[in-house]
Design goal:
Structural class: alpha+beta
Low-confidence stretches: 201-205
Radius of gyration: 22 Å
Largest sheet: 4 strands, mixed
CATH topology of the largest domain: GIY-YIG endonuclease
CATH class of the largest domain: Alpha Beta
Strand content: 5-15%
Distance between the termini: 63 Å
Mean pLDDT: 80
Shape: globular
Number of domains: 2
């Protein structure tokens, strides 16, 4: 039987005494995700990370096995709060955010914080930029093409997704399916058009 170890980690800011307790199988990758995804969605943790000029330091609080990580996460969240840290965790730990529902006041604040956000709104790449992207990607294939994940990797992926109920039993409406079909067909037409333009760009008449 393959043993999978899970790190209970703590990332923190000594100046403000803010921090976050989490768990991960691939800790270094998780730290990078925290930093690069901080602008992707509004969460208490991401709002805190956006106030920092660089990735916060972190340390491993406990290395545990998959059977008991929940109790250790709960333990360390409680302990760090007792020590005076202001944690951005929204639950007491052990179950991620499953079942969490923000209050009406929180939902209103989240809505207000997004008002007027026009980053990328209506932006389209120029034909020249699209050509450059196409040229840069020509001949490149996915690094995972033809490869299969090992049993250990699949086990880790399975554990990492445990309790994730996102889109569980969700079914798209007929209108949504129609919109997705049309969008897919439109993208295919655009890709074909860009490819022709790219060929003309490389081999002008």
């Amino acid at each position: 039987m393959i043993k999978v170890f899970i790190d209970i980690y703590f990332m923190f800011d000594l100046k403000t005494k803010h921090g976050y307790v989490g768990r991960s199988i691939h800790l270094e990758t998780r730290m990078k995700e925290h930093w690069f995804e901080r602008n992707c969605k509004v969460t208490y943790t991401n709002k805190w990370l956006c106030t920092l000029s660089s990735p916060p330091p972190y340390r491993v609080l406990k290395k545990c096995i998959e059977k008991n990580w929940e109790k250790w996460e709960i333990y360390w969240i409680a302990k760090m709060r007792e020590e005076g840290w202001t944690l951005t965790n929204l639950t007491e730990g052990g179950d991620g955010n499953n079942g969490f529902r923000p209050t009406e006041e929180t939902r209103k604040k989240m809505s207000i914080s997004k008002m007027g956000n026009t980053i990328g709104l209506g932006y389209r790449h120029t034909k020249e930029t699209k050509r450059k992207y196409s040229i840069n990607r020509m001949g490149k294939t996915s690094p995972m093409k033809g490869k299969k994940s090992s049993r250990e990797t699949r086990k880790k992926q399975s554990i990492a997704k445990m309790g994730n109920k996102y889109h569980l039993n969700h079914t798209h409406t007929e209108e949504a399916r129609k919109n997705m079909r049309e969008a897919h067909a439109r993208r295919k037409r655009e890709v074909g058009k860009n490819l022709l333009e790219t060929k003309e760009y490389i081999l002008p008449n």
